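U., I forgot to send this yesterday:
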Amino acid sequence: MIGRLNHVAIAVPDLEAGARAYEGALGARVSEPQALPEHGVTVVFVELPNTKIELLEPLGEESPIAGFLKKNPTGGMHHICYEVDDILAARDKLKELGARVLGSGEPTTGAHGKPVLFLHPKDFCGTLIEIEQA
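Result:
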């Protein structure tokens, strides 16, 4: 079911500073910021040869990332995203196996314009998991 690693997401209190750190200190290529109001975040993607790093900044006070940063003021790893061939089949199989799908259980559109779902961290070794339609 699980496919390739799509990205590792890191919550940051300052997206511009985070992007500069990856561009300047590490010499990475970083995308332009993209606001995703439906997810309450603004993101950039750090392009790597084999995957991406997604830097997330809260978009508004109600953002789930704002809550994360209150607990982790300097930022930190927020989630890991894996690709799946069929997101609805993956969702159904995961639910059958007892995994909890967050939200309504219906896919929403993620930063790459593809359907995504999030899985409860308590079901996956304390890590929030995002699955994305490949």
